[in-house]
Write a structure and sequence with these properties.
By secondary structure, the protein is α/β, with parallel strands linked by helices. The protein has two domains: 2-213, Carbamate kinase (3-Layer(aba) Sandwich); 300-417, VC0802-like (2-Layer Sandwich), CATH 3.30.2130. The chain has 13 helices and 16 strands. It has helices spanning 14-25, 41-53, 59-77, 82-101, 107-115, 117-132, 159-169, 200-211, 244-253, 263-267, 323-334, 357-367, 389-396; strands spanning 2-6, 31-35, 137-139, 177-181, 184-186, 192-194, 215-220, 241-243, 273-277, 286-289, 300-314, 339-344, 349-354, 371-385, 399-406, 410-417. The radius of gyration is 23 Å and the shape is globular.
Length: 429
Amino acid sequence: MKVYKFGGASVRDASGIKNLARIVSGEKSGLVIVVSAFGKTTNALEKVLKLWLDSDNDYKNHLDTVYNYHSGVAGDLFHDASMAKRKIDDSFALLKEYLRSSKPREYDYEYDRIVSQGEIWSTLIIAEFLKQSGLDLEWTDIRKSLVTDDRFRDANIIWDESQKRICKFFDFTLHRIYLTQGFIGATISGESTTLGREGSDYTAAILANMLDAESVTVWKDVPGLLNADPKWLHDAEKLEEVSYREAVEMTFSGAKVIHPKTIKPLQNKNIPLFVKSFINSDGEGTLITEEPNLRKIIPVFIRKENQVLLSLLPRDFSFVMGDNLSRIFNSFMGHGIKVNLVDASAVSINVCVDDERPKITSLLTDLKDEYSAVYNENVEMLSVRHYDQDAIERITSGREILLEQKSRSMVRFVARRIAYRSNSSLCPL
């Protein structure tokens, strides 16, 4: 049994869905297909959510646009779209009624309830098309089997309960192919949750782990895992094989090809992960495994944008280490802030974090009695795996280096373009 995952870019229109059908029809063994929302649907639903929470009735027009998009895809796929259209109409009607009649709760809760619908709609349409194409396929709502806690927008899997349910729902003696959603789950009580942006890869890895899959293939719009984002460095090279450890380092540093949590469930059972192109499905792609056959090692360049470099200094000049360090990081965790880089001295600590300004403001308010703080906004975190001097010079040219951190196999820089001029001390407390 194998697991295939298709992202939103690969199924954004009728031609993409037909291509998916062509790829999966060639697989003769048991198969689980994990699908994301159609391209840009998540962003569109985030807009709907914001307008609704702001009591702006324009959310109705934006939701109608999302509906027309899905209805249009269904119309392009089917000579008679009645079954698919009825399912989409019913699902949209339920959401519209909820938005009309409900009093909004906290943002994260409503985010998961509303944005998770994108995956439901895409899979309803694709499942109907694959069935009409003659495939022995069962559509299943992953929220009935993938159980999480109630940490909305970044839920944690409850593994034991999920394992029991998934083995029950995905019964390959009944159906050869199952199609389900990535990115979403539900609490024990049935409240919708999400696993973090781009979490469909993680869903695929979870299912592979629990079902003891032979392999996972993530189908992308790139030929495989590259040593740089081609939109940043145009001469990016494809990596033929990569170790689990290397992939974890890359994703943690900001590489966007796969979700950071994807590797661990696969590594735990030594399940290989393939990253392949849905445009050229016959290409070899990249293999991620425990012991890759490394023919050559080349520098890997990673850029993480929209970062903030935050510096904290104890007001009483006490040492940062020990209890102070524990207090600081507990505060970061409590405010839901992921730390991407840490640099500490005796009386200061520097951290690089995603630019989530409301969370940062709340954190600094919490720490203001004990720590003064300054931060640099609009910075980048640049990382090079397997670096040499040429690689360092290539990515630091034209940039002001604010922080450098070097180890045996990786160098990281927090930097900003020299042309950028801004007051770096935006929040002195």
